[in-house]
């Protein structure tokens, strides 16, 4: 190993009668699967501090990338200070999924466009330059207004809608420790001519947190219209902030 470093495999973390928490999770979630898909590396990221919700000096909240959606929605300040993001989370998926899903993982979902998942269909997101198989078709979950010709897919995340209205930012960090704050409105790219590039962060740059700003006054709301009451992607999703001081 370079520099004399050592690698400890998952087998060396505990013993059969006293499993390490990572070993126990590996077993509980069927990590080994059939053997062909067994992960080559396991990394414990729970000591990174990314699972905390912190109050900001300006009155906003900093939501760590590993905060579960259910924990954020249940936080004592969330309904009062972040009503639009909170309502978006509660409208997303099911209670079971919210209890497992990370808030920022929600932001990084891939499109649910049928062409993206069907290798027999052309898809500019999956294969740049191959075309879009649904430009002339019909789907209730694809874009209708102001869409480019390269891709009409929409983003499935409820977290992409709720926090955008009040002006949330996304914090990222590179492997070299360089941090930046990206407005959520810019973090998720529109398909345009390069639909294969879905987010702004560069390779090796990871999401550390999302930061909804301090309450701006007025009222916030988020409305999701879907085909059924639970665990369905939006047909239409809208978030807004109505300010009573005449500024918006």
TrEMBL record:
The family database entries (Gene3D superfamilies) matched by this protein are listed as: 3.30.465.10, [2Fe-2S]-binding domain
InterPro entries linked to this entry: 2Fe-2S-bd_dom_sf, Diverse_Substr_Oxidored, FAD-bd_PCMH-like_sf, FAD-bd_PCMH_sub2, Mopterin_DH_FAD-bd
Domain of life the protein comes from: Bacteria
Listed Pfam families:
FAD_binding_5
MF annotations from Gene Ontology: flavin adenine dinucleotide binding; oxidoreductase activity
Q: Which SUPFAM superfamilies match?
A: CO dehydrogenase ISP C-domain like, FAD-binding/transporter-associated domain-like
Q: Which residues belong to any copy of the Molybdopterin dehydrogenase FAD-binding domain?
A: 39-208
Q: Where is this region: Disordered?
A: 1-20
- Can you say what this protein is called? Xanthine dehydrogenase YagS FAD-binding subunit
